[in-house]
Amino acid sequence: MSSSTAHTTSGRDPRLDLFRGLANWAIFLDHTPHEILSWLTVRNYGFSDAADLFVFISGYTAALVFLRILREKGYGAAAARILKRVFQLYAAHLGVLLVYVCAILWVSYVSGDPDDVYQFNVAAFTEAPLRAVGHALLLTYKPVNLDVLPLYIALLAAFIPGMWLLARNPSLALALSLGLYLASRSFGWNLPGVAAGVWFFNPFTWQFLFFLGAWVGFGAARPFESILRSDVVFWIALGVLGLTLAIALRAQFGVLPAWIPNPFDPAHKTNLAPSRIVHFVALALVANNLLRPDSSVLRWRALAPMIACGKRSLPVFCSGVVLSFCAHSLIELGSNALWVQLTVGLAGLALMTTVAYALAGRIKPMALRTG
Asked: How far is CA 153 from each of CA 93, 203, 340, rounded to the nearest angstrom?
């Protein structure tokens, strides 16, 4: 995303809301097992997915919001605002975890089927509930599909010192972030976690995508805009997307040559494989060239629900996590019938959109301005 065109006359880039809404919708669909609509998401056709988009945009908006506060009110005020946001995210995560776990346990009890308790990694709450609560409070225990918010919490907390350096020497900040990324991949650094032993999203590697977004949001990419928007770079990015599409499709059908790493290996996501970064950057370059902030496409009524979900990203995301399990339960009750998959998928997106519109009149969105 171009930093110089990252805002309109209203001070807010509508593409941010569009892509955050898109990420929320895609995460909901991808988190719902046996959901036919998940084949519409990018994860099936390349190396990156909605998580990469979510982390990059989180870094981008963090730079826009908190670096502006730093310039206007000082480092202390900006750090205080970040801490407040971190606690808000922490509270939201614990609230979602409580509802999510209760929903899984209740459905398992009513149906008499304990499979979901183990499939979604909530058995700890039945076997050792006090220990599970303690690990949950420390963010070392996370049920399946509840890994994104803890990652965001860790990355935003790391932005407190990172913001100070980014404001003074953005290139050095990005270089140090890259160094940490490479070191953590080389030495296997990660935070401890229950069950798997480590966090599913390694914050030491995923921080690079976050700080890359912050680096762009800060405006450090401006000197390279003429290059990034050139036809040569555009066609190279398209070529990368075409190559990754071919590899992803071959992997989906199990015909990938042994010498090519499987892009759907969970370890590639945990440690943010370089191939994911390359694919995401190629996507971002193509999107930035095809969709400008003043594009008439952004005013299409068909995109309004997605943009609304992007404006209320946190509550929409939280509702989507719970709805993904509800959708999974209904699909199982419907014996994976195609019409059930379509119905619950569309209903889930509609409910997320309803949450966004219901909150629109009561919550003032945070202004995203570049200065």
From this structure: 9, 10, 35
pLDDT at 11: 55
Q: How far apart are CA 215 and CA 20, in angstroms?
A: 18
Mind listing the pLDDT tens digit for each residue in 97-145? 999 999 999 999 898 888 899 999 999 988 899 999 999 999 999 999 9
CA–CA dist 119, 125 (Å, integer): 13
Q: How far is CA 347 from CA 264, 302, 326, in A?
A: 28, 16, 11
- For the beta carbon of residue 184, count every other beta carbon within 10 angstroms: 20
What does the alpha-carbon distance between residue 313 and residue 122 come to, in Å, rounded to a whole number? 26
Residue 43 one-letter amino acid = R
Q: What is the pLDDT of residues 240-278, one digit of tens each?
A: 999 999 998 888 777 777 767 777 777 789 999 999 999
Render 40-75 in DSSP notation, one character per residue: GSGGGSSS--HHHHHHHHHHHHHHHHHHHHHHHH-H
Q: Which residues pair with 192 in a beta bridge?
A: 198
> Side chain identity at 58, as an amino acid letter?
S
Q: Which residues pair with 198 in a beta bridge?
A: 192
Phi then psi for residue 198, to 5 deg, are -140, 170
In this prediction, residue 4 carries a pLDDT of: 42
| CB of 50 closer than 8 Å to CB of 27 | yes
- What is the rounded average pLDDT of the residues 283-294? 92
Backbone angles phi, psi at 369, to 5 degrees: -125, 150
C-beta neighbour count of 62 within 10 angstroms: 25
